[in-house]
Design brief:
The chain is about 60% helix and about 5% strand. It is mainly α and about 200 residues long. The protein has a two-stranded antiparallel sheet with strand order 1-2.
């Protein structure tokens, strides 16, 4: 008698959960799309099903990745061209300076502007960095090793979890003391509780 009643109730509960998840997802997307109406329109306009919303988001993830890669490649090409133009401009400045030196000119008006040749203070040109004495090198700025930090925090948490399993109070207290000695707390850092991610494949 109970089995036939339970199935409709389970189906109804599942549908309600999907509807609630779809509503929450739509609200979160709306927040994410603030200031970007095209994102909202292209992503979920007219879609109410949770599965449909997720499917469209999956598709848009791949599209955004492709656009990001294309933008990165374009930026790299623009940067390379900018560097070439800057180098070319500097070479032209050197040619102008050399020509004015040969012509013994300190100042020359031109239609594009007046050129004045000035003395520039000498600057360092490094030819072989490895041969320079160490006294001319500054110590590198310390860099945080998150891997070492993670290993230390994980070791402490694991030891604490093992100590919590000890039934004998005195042994557990001794284990906790040993943890502080062998795996001391790290001020300014802690472990998160972990999270989840997704992998998109099959495209």
């Amino acid at each position: 008698m109970n089995a036939p009643d339970r199935a409709p109730r389970d189906a109804a509960a599942s549908l309600l959960r999907e509807m609630e998840a779809a509503s929450v997802l739509r609200s979160q997307i709306a927040d994410l799309a603030a200031g970007d109406p095209e994102f909202l329109r292209d992503t979920i306009e007219g879609e109410t099903s949770l599965h449909e919303q997720i499917a469209l988001l999956v598709a848009s993830v791949e599209e955004d990745k492709a656009m990001a890669e294309a933008s990165s490649e374009l930026a790299a090409r623009i940067k390379a061209r900018s560097d070439r133009l800057a180098e070319r401009a500097e070479m032209k400045r050197v040619l102008i300076s050399s020509a004015m030196e040969i012509g013994e000119l300190k100042r020359l008006p031109t239609p594009a502007g007046t050129v004045t040749r000035k003395e520039v203070a000498p600057k360092v040109v490094v030819t072989e960095e490895a041969d320079i004495p160490t006294r001319f090198f500054k110590a590198a700025k310390p860099t945080l090793s998150k891997k070492d930090l993670l290993d230390a925090l994980k070791a402490r948490r694991t030891a604490q979890q093992e100590a919590a399993k000890i039934q004998n109070q005195e042994e557990r207290a001794a284990a906790l003391v040993a943890i502080d000695r062998d795996h001391p707390d790290v001020p300014g850092a802690t472990l998160s509780n972990g999270s989840f991610t997704i992998q998109i494949s099959g495209r």
